[in-house]
């Protein structure tokens, strides 16, 4: 058999595969990285190089690559049932997963609707919210608001509540763009203003928007605590609490997009817990399958569910994807929840986070590093670099140091798998410090 090399796979990929979120021409100067296998926090290529996956493969991996217990659960499921349609049928993994999520989620979210990717969860929640108001006799409530710099996915409906110009502008003519309100991102606080005071000031802006527009508004969609694609913008949980109160007061749904921040990423199972709130819709994806298979879930309350429960088909929620509630994906999710249950994952993560923060002091205090921040198992900071192509340079240089980090503009972030060890944390922090020094 011909031995696979990095070089072969790169040229075949460039000729046949259109890669996501990429200007394909850039691969001429910054080559693709072929991956042969993964184990724990590491990825390995075909030429004997390895990379510490400090971004959890786009924020999805929780318990390492090729995790033995998730592998075993999937093998077992494969022997029983790979897939069956969920309209008119049901199966054990989807029932068990729905029951277990009801136990884990903030109170009141008893019903799970299934999608595939994160963006499909956003679409489902937007449609379900507007349809709820239609079913309850308020069809004018069909608009949405999101935070400035929000990201909720890249399908057309999700883009309408996404405030990232690069992803949106080319498709402007196709999108029914929705309004945004100011983000509580504490980097924008006045000098001397606490993150909490700033969050409450921003909630004031939300209040005036709701006051004026509530009659047309179906829902407010937010990424609780950390706005990922905005460059890991972080904010005080007081905003969540106040947003919940205001949405109740003005009869507007609150949609918590926990696609990136759920599953323990911010230090609690769900970020909403830190604001002490239950949203009307909770969106879960990414880490739910441990990073194995695409699956998304929209959890919602009895009140929402009951508004669709009727003799008329047209009052039902008419939405489906071919792979809705796929048994393999649900089984991977159950195996992931088992790992949370059998190990003290959240408290172990707290110890790991404290350790990282302790050894990161030289990075945090580096004169070219600004706004070093941390929530749970997410870290980010801005680097003052003279290089306009800082992100690409940093990514390439990091790979040569065996670490996979993928800056957004001049924001460097870490979002490692929870299995990262103290010695791997040291590798990550020390090598990042060296990178910062050579790029500033
Ligand atoms: C990744 C992400 C999405 C979209 O999920 P996909 O699976 O990429 O479609 C939506 N919202 C947030 C907050 C995300 O981080």
TrEMBL record:
| Protein EC | 2.6.1.62
Tell me which Gene Ontology terms the entry assigns under biological process. biotin biosynthetic process
Residues binding substrate, per UniProt: 58, 151, 286, 320, 406
- State where pyridoxal 5'-phosphate binds: 118-119, 257, 321-322
* Residues that bear N6-(pyridoxal phosphate)lysine: 286
Entry annotated with the keyword Cytoplasm: yes
Q: Give the catalytic activity.
A: (8S)-8-amino-7-oxononanoate + S-adenosyl-L-methionine = S-adenosyl-4-methylsulfanyl-2-oxobutanoate + (7R,8S)-7,8-diammoniononanoate
Task: State the family it belongs to.
Answer: Belongs to the class-III pyridoxal-phosphate-dependent aminotransferase family. BioA subfamily.
Name of protein: Adenosylmethionine-8-amino-7-oxononanoate aminotransferase
Q: Which organism is it from?
A: Gallionella capsiferriformans (strain ES-2)
Q: What is the lineage of its organism?
A: Bacteria, Pseudomonadati, Pseudomonadota, Betaproteobacteria, Nitrosomonadales
